[in-house]
Amino acid sequence: MAAMKEYSILNADQPKGQAFSVQMISSHPTGGSFIRPNKANFGVDFLTAVKNRYGLNDEQDVECEKENALVIGKKTVELVGFDSIIEQQSQLNKLVDISVSECAVSHAGQKEEISRTCPNIRSINLSKNLLPSWEKVTDIACQVQNLQSLDLSENKMKFPSASITCTLSKLRVLALNRTGVTWAEVLLCAPGWPALEELYLASNDITVLERPINVLQTLKLLDLSNNQLIDGSQLQLIAYLPRLEQLILSNTGISSIHFPDVGFGCKTKMFPLLQRLAVDDNKISQWSFINELDKLQCLQSLHCQNNPLMVTEKNPETVRQLILAKIGQLKVLNKSEIFPDERKGAELDYRKMFGNDWIMAGGNQNPDKNRPNEEFLAAHPRYQLLCLKYGAPEEGELKRQQPFILKNQLLTLTIKCPDKPDQKPIEKKLPDSMTIQKVKGLLYRLLKIPGSELKLSYESSKMEGKEIELENDLKPLQFYSIENGDSVLVRW
After folding, report:
1. Cα gap 128→132, rounded to integer Å
2. Disulfide check for 149: which of 173, 327, 362, 387 has CB 3.0–4.6 Å away?
């Protein structure tokens, strides 16, 4: 597009001699672009693009062909199996899943021609084309009676300012990433999507939300990633979508979230079916955000990487443990499954870590005297529940361990799996203050063991053949007098 230049129109008060201001292409309210007619691409109709893509025209569109070939050096190699795909889909009326991405589609073509020619289409990828408006989209989509999936990403379109009449009654999946759509425009179009289950709206500069009224009620997945929302309170406006199971809020700039209908320890009526939440790449820095998520009734999976909160502790594993202890029903954290032993260890460590704070706040082993203040309960909403689950922390647990001599802190141990002869022994250096529970958590990840109960024992290098069971998860390695050169035996 090097031949294109933008010339700003002369204003009445512009000084003489400055009639034209030449610059590179940009959007300007009083500007326009000049281009040679033979350089312009005004697009093709939908069926022409389909025929080009699937080899039904004599001349193939070079841009459509490029993704079906691989260039190595100066040689073009056809991808294996492409000929058979063309042969199989050679008849338009048999096509079910169609992709005409980057094929310069700009309009539908002759009226009703698509419905007559391609009656069996279920899925269409129209991303990165030249569709100028939502009206042009509906001219195509409303001819496809059984359309279930439609990708319109990266088409800079004009959306209607009033409700539309075209209804895509079977549409389940719609992608409008990078289309410039606003949330208000989504709600205007939404009556035409009565069965929609997945809506992708990434990278649209959506900043303000409105409550959907009688629309989007079937939605199960909503992707708002890469939209800079004004604040987390905006989420309350979409909190009553009755079937929403997955919400993607990555890189939306949020730092807080609040469910004001209930206090700590209770479950909110907001997002009643939400199971999976992604809040990666945001500004979350306070533990109050995580505390609020425990109010969600069904939350099972959380992605929260690349937030300031994730580096508040020196050890990333400590942050993971704190999140596990604060959100009781969580089963997956940052794509890593949470096994029962790991949860138990995290909750026990949490109970011990904040035991002294609990006592100072008014906590007591005697239930009649156990009255921690509101400030502590706000910071640690699940602490009382963990005390009921595992018992209140005892005084001996809360005593700080004396620092060890540096040379005695690490033990060199050999990890063996006697019931798995194919598993090679692994040598690891572990702190002698490490609890058995934490050793189990390490072994789950190290050996990639499925979620089953681990049984640990050890053999002393000084007493070969004699196994000593490591039965108390709360005791450190030093409690069992484990020494350098000993072997830890793992069974499951």
Report:
1. 11
2. 173
Q: Which two tokens stand for residue 382?
A: 């699940």
User: Per residue in 154-172, pLDDT tens?
Assistant: 999 999 988 777 899 999 9
| Positive or negative torsion for Cα 251, 255, 261, 262 | positive
**Strand residues in 352-471 grouped as ranges (E):** 410-416, 426-431, 455-459, 467-469
- Nearest CA to 243 out of 196, 279, 201 is that of 196
Strand, coil or helix: 6: strand
Element (H, E) at 183: helix 183-189
- What does the DSSP 8-state code read for residue 60? P
Are 7 and 31 within 8 A, CB to CB?
A: yes
| Rounded Cα distance, 325 and 472, in Å | 20
Per-residue burial over 443-474, b if 16 or more Cβ lie within 10 Å, else e, is bbeeeebeeeebebbbbbeeeeeeebebeebe
pLDDT single digits (tens) 195-230: 999 999 999 989 999 999 999 999 999 999 999 998
Q: Classify residue 324 by burial, with Cβ atoms within 10 Å: 0-12, 13-18, 19+.
A: buried
Question: How big is the CA angle at 354 (ends 349 and 357), to the nearest 5 degrees?
Answer: 165
Cβ atoms within 10 Å, residue 146: 13
Concatenated DSSP letters for 64-120? HHGGGEEEETTEEEEPTTHHHHHHHT-SGGG--EEE-TTS-EEE--STTHHHHH-TT
**With contact defined as beta carbons under 8 Å apart, do 95 and 121 qualify?**
yes
Q: Report d(CA 462, CA 485) in Å as an integer.
A: 9
Cα(344)–Cα(435) distance, integer angstroms: 13
Those residues with Cβ within 8 angstroms of residue 40's Cβ, 6 or more apart along the chain or in another chain: none
Instruction: Tell me 270's DSSP state.
Output: S
Q: How does pLDDT run across 384-399, given as a tens digit for each residue?
A: 999 999 998 877 667 6
The helix/strand/coil state of 235 is helix
- Strand 221-223's sheet: what is its strand order? 97-99, 123-125, 149-151, 173-175, 198-200, 221-223, 246-248, 276-278, 301-303, 332-333, 336-337
Question: What value, to the nearest 5°, has the Cα angle with vertex 16 and ends 10 and 17?
Answer: 95
